[in-house]
Amino acid sequence: MLERLNDAMEHIEAHLGERIEAADLARIAMTSEYHFRRMFSALAGLPLGEYVRRRRMTVAGAEVLAAPDRTLLEVAVRYGYDTGEGFARAFRAVHGVGPGEARRTGAVLRSQQRLTFRLVVEGSSAMRYRLVEKNAFRVVGKKTRVPLIHEGPNPAIAQFIRGIGREALERIATLSDQEPAGIVGVSDQLDPSRAEGTELDYYHGVVSGAEPPGDLDALDVPAGTWAVFENEGEFPQALQYLWRDVFTQWFPSNPYASRPGPEILRVRLSEDGKRADAELWIPVERSAES
Asked: CB of 234 within 8 A of CB of 275?
């Protein structure tokens, strides 16, 4: 898997002056575009589109400074921009100065280094997981739209849950009739980039086969395979690290890819609220190579 990801990185370098499609990179990596975007953001720590933009402006910046015989418009066209204005906006977004000012003043520019993925062995701990085949089901509860936060508590989710109220949560809990049991947090419709601050649909509810009451929100989920990961540790850091480890360690080592669908998190907090036992349910499918 890492070798194919590196082939996709080579494709980016060879086509920085052209439109780069995520679907083409996914084909090189022999996986779905959905899984490729998620895998890339987890491994690289930034969205795919942002990496491509930074690499393109890194190389263009070097040309702006090192090739004064070329006009700025020529450089812009070379890197896929039809107008100097569009090129200048992209250049400034990465480097903090426009290309004309950079050329006149010899400004310090920012460089996005080429990414190469390598296997690094870090300890010998094993991830605990199981595969579950589930029939179609519903998530039933209350829904809101919240920003994605990679580390630390999510204030928007905490405020939303407080607003539901104890009585409503107890009524929702009675509708749970299958795994994962009890109240769960469900993330759906995440932005493909997984960038910090992008928004997602968050459901606080239960997994059920029952018809939902009219005052509750419901999400229909089709049948499929789920990878279920178990984890315990400091809350919420251990849970957020679990998601990272699933995509940076488990997927590259197993013949599965993520597929579109909600992610389900069942959490049981300690009495002091500082630690948690958790199950993370990720929708998966056999990867193309297996």
From this structure: yes
